[in-house]
Task: inverse folding
């Protein structure tokens, strides 16, 4: 019978493993063996992994791959990608190759502004609060100097602090809406430290403001936290080429371009399609974000909010035919960092950034946006020509054969067989059954 555990975090690693294996697995010895099999054989590296989070008992590995031949602003890159989904790296690589001799990818940084907010409740006269804020606005900057001086030396810091009235949505609810420049850092710790200081300043100054009543002085701070929605921290990536250089899968350049534009337009107006469309974009984005030690959950949340910024969830990519050219582009919010966090701790993250030639945060934003655009182009290219399953299932073939227990010899035979045969679960099972019977 399972029992609660007291002080789990204080147990040794071995004790944690023994407890979870005994309490929650049917074969404790087998579970222990699996957990220990994935420890890093280098004890110093394993110690680094163990200290990333609490209650570590093993490592969970994802494949680390390279998608080569990305020409971005006339510079050639090889993109590190960490992801488990079949066909993602292959699709990205094919898109990179497709555009390599067509001018490659072009990118532009639209903005790099990050956002944080102090949420508070104020019961009193709105005009008094506005006068109070104007009177003490400089104090928010001054009181945070010890936090911001290092960032300011690098060219960043606090950009603005604004008072926002949200009482039309929640009674007595206001916020300090604050913007920041965090340079090569993602900036979460910096922003949150500034916000917590703003909250202290707000409380302290309000408590002695002589124009406030006693009730008005009693401002309630609800929370102080950065936002992962960064609509002004945006990068644009695009590709384009003449229609006569776009022939594809038996289609003329104009016919292929029209199909691509139609596919994007459907994702613009149909949310059911847009979600899957954008998920494919995130396959590429998340893989590079994860490989470079950035927070893919934050990126995902911000990107999907941006996809709904006009009141309807819609495509993140755009496509047009203009002046005899096909143009395909994406504008996307990306709050990324190349210093701080895991960037100096995780050995694979450090290697990934080295492979990318140690980019600044703005350069990494551009690389990641390109990964998303390439992934979307590859998916749409398949959808409007051969269909998505032909390429995807071929990439999934080895996973299927491993699940079915195929030997190395059987895998070799069947990989060759399915080069010209449609891959489905049923067809793979039948082919393997036939080989085993012969």
Result:
């Amino acid at each position: 019978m399972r029992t609660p555990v007291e002080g789990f975090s204080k147990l040794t690693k071995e004790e944690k493993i023994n407890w979870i294996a005994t309490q929650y697995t049917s074969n404790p010895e087998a579970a222990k063996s699996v957990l220990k099999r994935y420890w890093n054989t280098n004890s110093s590296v394993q110690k680094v992994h163990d200290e990333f989070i609490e209650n570590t008992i093993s490592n969970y590995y994802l494949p680390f791959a390279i998608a080569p031949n990305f020409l971005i602003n006339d510079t050639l890159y090889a993109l590190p990608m960490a992801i488990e989904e079949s066909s993602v790296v292959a699709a990205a690589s094919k898109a990179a190759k497709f555009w390599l001799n067509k001018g490659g990818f072009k990118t532009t940084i639209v903005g790099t502004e990050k956002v944080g907010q102090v949420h508070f409740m104020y019961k009193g006269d709105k005009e008094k609060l506005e006068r109070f804020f104007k009177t003490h606005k400089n104090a928010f900057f001054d009181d945070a100097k010890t936090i911001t001086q290092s960032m300011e030396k690098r060219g960043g810091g606090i950009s603005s602090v604004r008072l926002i009235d949200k009482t039309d949505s929640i009674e007595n609810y206001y916020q300090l809406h604050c913007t920041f420049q965090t340079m090569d850092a993602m900036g979460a710790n910096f922003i949150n430290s500034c916000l917590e200081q703003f909250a202290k300043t707000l409380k302290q100054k309000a408590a002695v403001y002589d124009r406030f009543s006693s009730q008005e002085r009693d401002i309630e701070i609800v929370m102080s936290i950065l936002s992962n929605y960064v609509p002004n921290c945006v990068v644009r990536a695009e590709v384009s080429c003449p229609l006569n250089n776009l022939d594809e899968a038996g289609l003329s350049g104009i016919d292929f371009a029209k199909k691509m534009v139609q596919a994007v337009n459907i994702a613009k107006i149909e949310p059911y399609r847009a979600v899957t469309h954008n998920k494919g974009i995130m396959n590429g984005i998340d893989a590079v974000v994860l490989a470079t030690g950035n927070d893919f959950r934050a990126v995902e949340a911000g990107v999907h909010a941006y996809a709904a910024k006009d009141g309807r969830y819609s495509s993140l990519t755009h496509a047009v035919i203009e002046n005899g050219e096909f143009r395909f582009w994406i504008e996307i919010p990306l709050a990324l960092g190349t210093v701080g966090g895991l960037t100096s701790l995780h050995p694979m993250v450090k290697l990934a950034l080295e492979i990318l030639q140690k980019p600044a945060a703005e350069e990494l934003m551009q690389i990641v946006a390109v990964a998303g655009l390439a992934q979307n182009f590859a998916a749409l290219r398949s959808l409007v020509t051969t269909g998505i399953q032909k390429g995807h299932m071929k990439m999934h073939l080895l996973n299927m054969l491993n699940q079915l227990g195929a030997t190395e010899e059987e895998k070799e035979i069947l990989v060759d067989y399915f080069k010209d045969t449609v891959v489905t679960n049923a067809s793979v099972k039948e082919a393997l059954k036939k080989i085993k019977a012969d």
In short: The chain is about 50% helix and 20% strand.
